[in-house]
Amino acid sequence: MVVCVGENINIMSKTIGPAIRERRAEPILEMAKHEEKVGIDYLDLNIGPSRKAGEEVMDWMVKTVQGAVNKPLSLDTTNAAAMEAGLKIHKDKALINSVSLQPERLEKVLPMAKTYSAYVIGLLWGKEGMPRDANERASHAVDFIYQANNLGIPTEDIWIDPIVSPVSVEINQVLACLEFMSMLKDIAPEAKSIVGLSNISNGTPDKLRPVLNRTYLIMLMKYGLYSAIVDAYDKELLTIAKGGMPEIVKLVHRVMDGEEPNLKALSPKESEYVKTTKVLLGKSLYSHSWLEL
After folding, report:
1. pLDDT score recorded for residue 52
2. Is the distance from CB of 4 to CB of 41 less than 8 angstroms?
3. pLDDT of residue 136
């Protein structure tokens, strides 16, 4: 079972963005109720930088959403003051999305996790940017946890985000993320893990994005993935996250272990998952036509 954080209440959305800016609750509540209905565990409220009136926006968003649905929220903004405004009024335990190893985020936002007893996502983005490999991710994770612990934030309240990057751009980063996930339980057994799942399919045609997202979720599950930020409208993805489709999950994991299934003996769906697993393992070259080959 993977804890699902809904990504759909987002300032970048064509419907949600204008509603946030105009303080129109209806489209936001419609989305929130849908996320609650399909079993999303945390609702991510992404208001972006929100440089103008960020505190007011986040205050309004948290009150509006928590007044209508009984779910904890993931507060998502680069505006530190807006983050604190949301944490001040959030019911129960919020999730801070996110704190990188950039000095400003560490200094301004990380202490809020202690002050407001919130969970915090430790984004493994270092001072020099994107980590190069699994070992650099491990080093960043240890650094983040050390700094959080020094502020009195327990390791079990930390959700480590290794940063998923698009398969269409750099397969080595896709593999590095998987390798790091296989190491995390040894590095910090009490820490949780989380990924922005849709990043894996950024830059690919819309019709191909779901199978990449679903397959990579299954691959990360092999290493005990705790949580994923997901599209609340992908029913099959949510089914997998909640423990469904066990035969597909086993099939993907067998391919990861080196098995070479006979594609002709598989159903079309099984074949899609096997082909996609091979692409995400770097055994087949990524192209927009990988499912047709």
Report:
1. 87
2. yes
3. 98
What DSSP letter does each residue of 58-91 carry, written as one string? Answer: HHHHHHHHHTT----EEEEES-HHHHHHHHHH-S
- Six-digit token pair at 185? 């339980």
* pLDDT computed for residue 293 by the predictor: 84
- Tokens read off for 282: 């770097």
DSSP-assigned letter for residue 40? -
The H or E element containing residue 279 is: helix 268-280
Q: What is the largest CA-CA distance in the chain?
A: 58
**What total number of domains does the chain contain?**
1
Q: Is 147 part of a structural domain of the chain?
A: yes
pLDDT score recorded for residue 8: 98
The residue type found at 255 is V
User: Please, what are the averages of pLDDT over each run of 10 residues along the chain (293 residues)?
Assistant: 98 97 97 98 96 95 97 98 98 97 96 98 95 98 98 98 97 98 97 98 97 98 98 98 98 98 97 98 95 91
The number of beta carbons lying within 10 Å of the beta carbon of residue 152 is 10
pLDDT of 51 reads 87
> What is the amino acid identity at position 236?
E
Q: At what angle do helices 54-66 and 80-89 cross, to 10 degrees?
A: 30
> Is residue 285, in this structure, part of any structural domain at all?
no
Residue 135 lies in a domain: yes
- Cis peptide bond N-terminal to 289, omega within 30: no
- Please report, for the domain that includes residue 149, its CATH number: 3.20.20.20
d(CA 44, CA 62): 10
Say if CB 32 and CB 69 are below 8 A apart: yes
Domain that holds residue 11: 3-234
